[in-house]
Known about the structure:
The structure holds two protein chains of two kinds. Helix content of chain A is 69%, strand content 1%. Chain A is an all-alpha fold. Among the domains of chain A are: 1-31 and 65-179, Tetratricopeptide repeat domain (Serine Threonine Protein Phosphatase 5, Tetratricopeptide repeat, Alpha Horseshoe), CATH 1.25.40.10; 180-261, Tetratricopeptide repeat domain (Serine Threonine Protein Phosphatase 5, Tetratricopeptide repeat). In chain A, helix 1 (2-25) packs across helix 3 (74-91). Chain A is globular, with a radius of gyration of 21 Å. By secondary structure, chain B is an alpha+beta fold. Chain B folds into two domains: 38-184, no CATH class; 190-386. Helix content of chain B is 51%, strand content 20%. Chain B contains twelve helices and 14 strands. Chain B has helices at residues 12-24, 59-66, 78-83, 85-95, 133-136, 190-207, 209-219, 237-263, 271-290, 298-320, 327-356, 360-386, and strands spanning 39-46, 50-58, 75-77, 96-100, 103-104, 106-109, 113-117, 120-130, 142-147, 158-164, 169-174, 180-184, 224-227, 230-233. In chain B, strands 1, 2, 6, 7, 8, 10 and 11 form a seven-stranded mixed sheet that branches. Chain B has a four-stranded antiparallel sheet with strand order 5-4-9-12. Chain B has a two-stranded antiparallel ribbon with strand order 13-14. In chain B, helix 7 (209-219) packs parallel to helix 9 (271-290), helix 8 packs parallel to helix 10 and helix 9 (271-290) packs antiparallel against helix 10 (298-320). The radius of gyration of chain B is 29 Å and the shape is elongated. Chain B starts with 11 loop residues before the first helix and ends in a 5-residue tail after the last helix. Chains A and B meet through strand 1, helix 4, helix 16, helix 18 and helix 19 of A and helix 1, helix 2, strand 3, helix 3 and strand 7 of B. Strand 1 of chain A pairs antiparallel with strand 3 of chain B.
Amino acid sequence: MRKRWRELRTALARGARLLVVLSLASTGPFAVPAASAAASAPYLPASDSQVLAEIPAGAAHRSAPSLAAAARRLDVALPLAQFDIARARATGDLRFLGYAEAALAPWRNRTDAPPEILVLDATILQSRHAFEASLIELDRALTARPGDAQGWLTRATVLRVLGRYEEAEMSCERLRPSADAAIASLCTESLRSLTGHLSDAYETIKLLSMQNLPAEARAWRYSELGEMSERLGDGERAGHWFREGLEAAPDDLYIRAAYADSLLRQGRAAETLRLLADYQSMEPMLLRVTIAHRQLRDGAGALAEQQLSTAFQVELMRGDAVHRREQARFLLEVDRDPPAALSAALDNWRIQREPDDILILLRAAQAAHRSGAAAPALEFLKRNGLEDARLAAYRDAG
Amino acid sequence: MLPLRRSTGRTAARIHAALAGLAAACACSAAAFAHISSNGFLSARFDDREIHGSMEISVRDAELAVGIDANHDGKITWAELRSAQPRLVGYLSDHVTFAVQGRRCDITFQPMEVNDRVDGHYAWLPFTGRCPGAIDAVEIDAVEIRYTVLEGLDPSHRGLLTLTGQGGTQTGVLGGGSPQAIYSVLAPNRWQTFQDYFEAGVRHILSGIDHLLFLLSLLLPAVLHRKSGHWEPVHEARPALIGVLKVVTAFTLAHSITLTLAALDLVRLPTRLTESIIAASIIVAALNNIFPIITESRARIAFGFGLLHGFGFASVLSDMGLPPGARLISLLSFNLGIEAGQLSVVLLVMPLIYALRNGLFYRRTVMPWGSAAIAALAFVWLVQRAAFPVG
Lengths: 398, 391
């Protein structure tokens, strides 16, 4: 019994981290080519032995029989999808999300689709910012299995991103019977921090003991504390929590990006570059790196800017809504095109409503001299009593 | 009231430029992969009865689809890729199909090469196609394309299409829930293009209150002339008309020049700079009415600053994009739309101020206070535009 509890807690913590990590990773890491970006044309490689691709483990050809087995047997499909999602999480490689989707596809449309499948599917949809579709899958899963803690936690996360705090809080409540008390409290308190109880929630989460929980769960707590410190306007303290978080979970891309943002806001560009030195192959990190180079005015970010621009254009071409927030930031801070940034920030606002989404919208609206465009966000902010020191400069301007 | 600088969204032309840019930033190292979602690229040109094009699939996706890594060492060499070419061609033949009038086109592939894109190396396969369905028709019009690459393997894979017909280039996306679509590859309707861009030009000048205020500031004194330090009404319509004509012509000429240069991407200035100078130009023109320095050749002001206003117009046009194959006609239509909008404002304002010119109200109130109000408004814009905080 104790062991099962521990397993569940681990799974929950993993799930929580997974959601945020995936949503961050969904732009995907992104390589900096060694050579300069020359115009390319098709060519014949000089030698037969030239390596054209390195295939990561799990990305090799999937034969028809193995695909058929996954379509027939749940005990094949489920671990396969979990493996793929874990790979996506560990490497930020977006293609693995697609592979996981393929493993789930034969199952998720069945009327008796297993809840585990639906929750995984919801996780993928969430990471693609298909939030409504994700909620539909979660509701299907939770109807079939009302005690599915992972399902409730994922649901709370999705609703929180959508700014539907009351519903999110109800999902956190549904966690209590089956999840670790600290996880459930963290779920609830992190919501209270967004709805007028920032200081109070901060103190409560600070006192939450998670020493017995896995590193991912502790990292989640640290990231909440760090972000709350940011919203409280205390960059120094935020840095402390983010560093604690990275110590607990060095591969936590979400914390690393949040820490980078905090440093950039304080004008500490050189530290940002050190923080992200080994992470420049990832696109969200590359965005922060280019902004840091801009702050330093060292002219070292030109190639990265070009690559980011290309990647955002591909997303646009594909019709992906995944990284409108980052795109808006890129347009505002790197491209210096306020009208385009505002347009992207508005598109983003239609999809997600986290404090950072409000921040980029207000900044873009101000830069584009269209304060009125941010009115819905200001209204949202007032209605929920959202406290955020970063927004203070903009909220009165509207 | 603030001038609107509405971004009109991204059109196919802009996205097409994005596609072109894709190939420009190459990942030149095989080991360094960018992990963006999986994309395939299909580019096709439709001539009278033939298709010429290329299909591109990333080497990694090719491995997933047909299995290329013969020695299972996790590395795909050029030799391995080349020996898998027949299977890859077979796979692509099955998963990318063209049909005209319900009859499938025969696709013949030529030898494969390699292309570098931002997320790694791609197998690049040129092809030609013949469409039996097109034989009855005069030319290929509607082409049905079905794209199911990586079906069952990676539902997030998308085929990004660039299709060129006689009329121009269009882009498309296939895959996921919508594997097929019908594309019309006939010439786009030029009349429609003209209308669209003309309308955009009219709309822009009429909502671009800053351009109109600049022009208005230069036109206000057109019904007056300077005599021993005072404004006096002109006695006949002729000099007023000539003055207006000079100013409007100079402004038109100047902004047309820079609009064209900027729209064709020959010259580029930072938006912040041009927008700030546009605001400053209004202040100069308005203040010149109160404290006249240049009284007889306002056309020079119109021309000088008109050059900057042209860049302002161009930023709108660049948001809309110029459709390939119809760049000149759309640029011309947009410009004509701006002139038409501007002319209608002039025709509305001129008779009014001409009628008012003799009264003291015009000379003592409209001229100085109207100009002062314009200058004040423009000053607010200038501060906003020059000093907006981006950080």
